[in-house]
Amino acid sequence: MLSHLECARCGLRHDADRPQNLCRECASPLLARYDLSDIGKPTGDNSLWRYRDVLPVRELDPTFSLGEGMTPLVPLPALSRALDAKVLMKDESLVPTGSFKARGAAVGVARARELGIEGIKMPTNGNAGAAWALYAARAGLRSVIAMPEDAPLITREEVQASGAELRIVPGTIADAGKALADVDLFDASTLREPYRIEGKKTMGYEIVEQLGWRVPDVIVYPTGGGVGLIGIHKALQEMRELGWIEGELPRLVAVQSTGCAPIVKAFDEGKAESTFWDAAYTDAFGINVPKPLGDFIILQAIRETGGTAVAVTDEQIAADRAETARLEGVFLCPEGAATISAVRHLRGTGWLEADDEVVVLNTGAGIKYPSLRL
Ligand SMILES: *Cc1c(COP(=O)(O)O)cnc(C)c1O
Ligand SMILES: [Zn+2]
């Protein structure tokens, strides 16, 4: 059961039963903490709500879920042979709204409604705005979404169709954030709202449950704001505390594009935080985040687990997108393809061994990017 919110930097405790954004002392993200005694392994719903005992929603409206979560974990045998690696894909293309952002939106919106919040505002690279606008519509909440003008067109249409107010902004997600300063609604931007991460952490629970309550050696994640990576790490720590897993945690790998790689740069330089990446651009739009608010948490998670951070080029991403479709019949989103490029790179350097069991996240549906050339 949800107990309180805790600052990820200074540890200060905050009340979880009223709307909260950042820590009132140090303006860092807040993490949900639970009473983890007496929780049994999940049974029930074939969706992320099977983990409701470690989710923040106190009373779930049974009609709210669209069936988000519990996506397949599939082996990629032909690609594994080609890469001389052992690769499994967690396929988030099957989630409502066509990206894993629906996990964060389902849990975040359900909790917002429970806390009496009437509307949300959010800057987005596309998929998060689409998911939050649609789930907000489902919950009867208002929403105002700001998006860079070159975000995937389909995500604009999802936002508009939901009845949300959409603001199109020149520049990056950082500029989109500034375009919402005048809007007087709850700020649900990445990590300024504590419950999106709770929805995304369920990917970590599912991977472990689907492997028979066992962890893989490595998890490779396309990192923008880093919420999924932080969430998976949080899930692994909670499962260890629950006694559901033991031993070493998987090595967590953050993948970025060479066109926007603030986490890779900070990791390589041994820094605790990233610096703003100027003129950020990548076709893998979901990971085009020049300065993630949770950079220090991402870097801690990678280092604590003995993981690493890699940057791959957009050309390599496009090539691996085509290769995966050809060998496996799987049409990855560009962010998902970046994880394959990272596996290729890390096998080349020897960081990954041939028998390491590697889980990669395909964070969205390839068909959401119809204008992207291969
Ligand atoms: C948002 C997004 C990402 C990055 O997710 P974070 O958790 O913010 O790092 C990766 N892939 C896709 C398709 C996305 O929409
Ligand atoms: Zn703090």
From TrEMBL:
It comes from the Bacteria. PROSITE patterns: DEHYDRATASE_SER_THR. Keywords: Lyase, Pyridoxal phosphate. One of its GO terms (biological process) is L-serine catabolic process. SUPFAM superfamilies: Tryptophan synthase beta subunit-like PLP-dependent enzymes. It holds the Pfam family PALP. Its cofactor is pyridoxal 5'-phosphate. One of its GO terms (molecular function) is threonine deaminase activity. Residues 65-364 form the Tryptophan synthase beta chain-like PALP domain. Signal peptide: none annotated. This is Threonine synthase. It comes from Lentzea albida.
